Structures are given as structure tokens and as C-alpha cells.
Amino acid sequence: MIIRAILEDITALAVDAIVNAANCSLLGGGGVDGAIHRAAGPELLKACRPLGGCKTGEARITPGFRLSAKYVIHTPGPVWHGGNHREPELLRNCYRNSLELANGRQCRTVAFPGISTGVYSYPLRAASEIAVKTVSEWDGRFPEETIFCCFSREALEIYQEILKYHQTRSLS
Ligand code: ADP
């Protein structure tokens, strides 16, 4: 799989699926969640309502409506409570369950935001390491390309550093 990091607004990406760092209600919120709902239009909320929410670490898929992306995969990340409340495992589940849904819909390209690294306060480096490791280990047929869509230069630099380390290791 091709894995790369870019600095972009995830709502602008023309990929098969973008991942939404949702909350458990799936009814929208602030941060990337709010931006995705605004860009997708009110149909997205209408599609989310009947889903009846989603547990932390699980994932649900809807159409992308007015987005360029065909699908939105919604996954509530863990709130950071110091690291001893299953946060790493739950964050890993977010990535894995999102990839599973992308694979099921044969999505060639998928873009992830930094799940939990905003309002949910997961430390950026630790969260990014889990993101890269979990995606690198994925052995499904799809996606063929995963994009880590960073929203700050700091996040981009961290991802690039981790990716470089992983790619060096996987070549040796
Ligand atoms: P969480 O509640 O999971 O922490 P947030 O939306 O608060 O979710 O933040 C998750 C990450 O998404 C943060 O790193 C934030 O900088 C980033 N982010 C916010 N808006 C966008 C956007 N439009 N595109 C990509 N990333 C975004």
C-alpha cells in the first residue's frame, strides 16, 4: 500500500473515502466533524441519524453527498484520559475498523485526519505512531493508497518522520 502525509483540508480531497473523527452520537460536532458536515450538506446528518450512534473505536459508512469523496467513514476516537484507559487499543480499532469498511466498498484511496488529536487531546506523536503502524500492518486488498491528511505543519512533520522510519525499516 502507498502511504503518504499531506497538509490539506480533508473536505477538499477527491478520494474514495474520507474518515471523520466523529463523536459517539454521529450527529456532528466541532473540528473536522463540523467541517465535514458543512461541506457534505444536510443530507449527511439525515444519513447519520438512523445509524443510532457508534461506540468508540467502531466505524460506520455513509455516502459523501456534496463532498468530492464518495464515502464518509465515521469513527469516534477515544478521549485521552492519561493513557491507561485503553486509549491506544481504541485508537487502533478506529483505524482498523475504518480500513475494513473501506475494503468492503473497494475504496482505492482513503484519507484519515488525526483522529482524537484535537478536542479529544490524544498526544500527537503517540496518536500518529499508532495511525502509521496500524495502516502499515493492514493487508486487505483495499485501500491501495492511504493519505494522512494533516491540518498543521507540526502534524505533517511528525507523520513524515514516522513514515520515513517505517519505510526504512520495511525496506531492510
Ligand atoms: P477529535 O475530537 O477526534 O480530537 P477534532 O476534530 O477536534 O477531533 O480534531 C482531530 C484532528 O483533525 C485534529 O488534528 C485537527 O487539527 C484536525 N482537523 C480539524 N479540521 C480539519 C480539516 N478540515 N481537515 C483535516 N483535519 C482537520
What does it look like?
This protein has 5 helices and 6 strands. The protein has 172 residues and is of the alpha/beta class. It has a single domain, classed as Leucine Aminopeptidase, subunit E, domain 1. It has a 6-stranded mixed sheet, with helices on both faces. The radius of gyration is 15 Å and the shape is globular. The relative contact order is 0.21. The site of adenosine-5'-diphosphate has 20 residues, from α1.
In short:
This protein is 40% helix and 19% strand.
Main sheet summary = 6 strands, mixed
* CATH topology term: Leucine Aminopeptidase, subunit E, domain 1
CATH-scheme architecture = 3-Layer(aba) Sandwich
Radius of gyration: 15 Å
Query: Based on helices, strands and strand pairing, what is the structural class?
Result: alpha/beta
What percent of the residues sit in helical stretches (DSSP H or I)? 25-40%
Q: What do we call the CATH homologous superfamily?
A: Leucine Aminopeptidase, subunit E, domain 1
Order of helices and strands: EEHHEEHEHEH
Tell me the total number of β-strands. Answer: 6
CATH first level: which class?
A: Alpha Beta
Distance between the termini: 17 Å
Strand content: 15-25%
The largest beta-sheet arranges its strands as 1-6-5-2-4-3
Q: Which ligands accompany this protein?
A: adenosine-5'-diphosphate
Which whole number gives the mean pLDDT? 97
In DSSP terms (H or I, runs of 4 or more residues), the helix count works out at 5
Q: Note the overall shape.
A: globular
Give the low-confidence spans.
Answer: none
Question: How many structurally independent domains?
Answer: 1
